[in-house]
Design a protein that fits this description.
The protein has helices at about 15-20, 25-35, 105-115, 145-160, 230-240, 255, 290-300; strands spanning about 1-5, 40, 55-60, 80, 85-90, 130, 140-145, 165-170, 180-185, 195, 205-215, 220-225, 265-275, 280-285. The chain is an alpha+beta fold and about 300 residues long. The N and C termini lie far apart (about 75 Å). The mean pLDDT is about 90.
Length: about 300
């Protein structure tokens, strides 16, 4: 058990704990307070209780509980790893975390097998998924290995301090060499499995693109995203009338047969973050996967 006396009056208990012990997030502290792991002057209170100078706060961090997710020996292409985080080059077809219909064979299952030094994140023995890539999107992903790293990396993504750059092969050639796409994204009003670019009360979404190579009926784009909405690049490219090649959810199926691909040709090529512990700026890159290289080679050969 740990304890500490309050020096200033007026702060909420949960906010004071998150500031005093930043290894755990405010949400985590709120859960611990509600579950009785924190006392104020030897009494259980609510997270929003206001503190007074001289108050005594005591707390215990319970041992992490095991989850139902089982480790699986799934190969990982590791770009970097230390005690705080692991960076991988995610292959196509790998779902990030278990969900209905994908209870096994996910990145989380693979990480649980690979990382035997994972600490409790959110009170559970599981990797800290900071951000996600769609099942058939490839490229750089960072995963936290401690709760402190999870909190710091999540803060960076929320504050837009990270830099994310993608490569995409799209149908057609944009009229402008580069541009900005700014919309309000949200769930499609009819097709609930899809997102839509312009939705009333949707969330602000911003992408920037640059045409790096053109072909007969297609182009290779370098895309930087300012925000990280679900399916953002795929939705924005479709909104621009240049959907990602192979994207059967947002692309027009009749035109998709002209340039064939077994998945959306979208790759997270670069990710820049500050190390969650040392704060050193780090940049990770992943080369294009074989199927995208093969398609580009075919497109180059078919140029008029």
């Amino acid at each position: 058990m740990s304890e500490k006396n309050v020096e200033e009056t007026g702060q909420r208990l949960d906010a004071w704990l998150a500031k005093t012990e930043p290894e755990h997030s405010r949400a985590r502290w709120q859960a611990l307070i509600k579950d009785g792991w924190v006392t104020l002057n030897n009494e259980q209170v609510k997270p929003n209780t206001k503190l007074r100078s001289g108050d005594q706060v005591k707390w215990t961090i319970p041992e992490p509980v095991s989850t139902d997710v089982l480790p699986e020996n799934i190969p990982l292409n590791i770009l970097y790893e230390d005690a705080h985080m692991i960076v991988i080059n995610k292959p196509a077809g790998l779902v990030v975390h278990p969900a209905a219909g994908n209870e096994t064979g996910t990145l989380v299952n693979a990480l649980l097998h690979h990382c035997n030094d994972l600490k409790g994140i959110g009170g559970e023995k599981r990797p800290g998924i900071v951000h996600r890539l769609d099942k058939d999107t490839t490229g750089v992903m960072v995963v936290a290995k401690t709760e402190a790293a999870m909190n710091e990396l999540a803060r960076q993504f929320k504050a837009r301090e990270t830099e994310k750059e993608y490569l995409a092969i799209v149908r057609g050639v944009p009229s402008a060499q580069h541009g900005q796409i700014k919309t309000h994204m949200g769930r499609h009003p009819i097709h609930r499995k899809k997102m839509a670019a312009e939705v009333r009360n949707g969330r602000h979404a911003v992408s920037y693109y640059e045409v790096t190579e053109t072909f007969d009926g297609a182009a290779l784009l370098r895309i930087r995203i300012e925000t990280g909405r679900t399916h953002q690049i795929r939705v924005h490219m479709a909104h621009l009338k240049h959907p990602v090649v192979g994207d059967t959810l947002y692309g027009r199926t009749s035109a998709a047969r002209v340039i064939r691909a077994n998945r959306q040709m979208l790759h997270a090529a670069k990710l820049s973050i500050a190390h969650p512990d040392t704060k050193e700026r780090m940049t990770f890159t992943a080369s294009l996967p074989e199927d995208m290289e093969t398609l580009l080679s075919r497109l180059r050969q078919s140029r008029p």
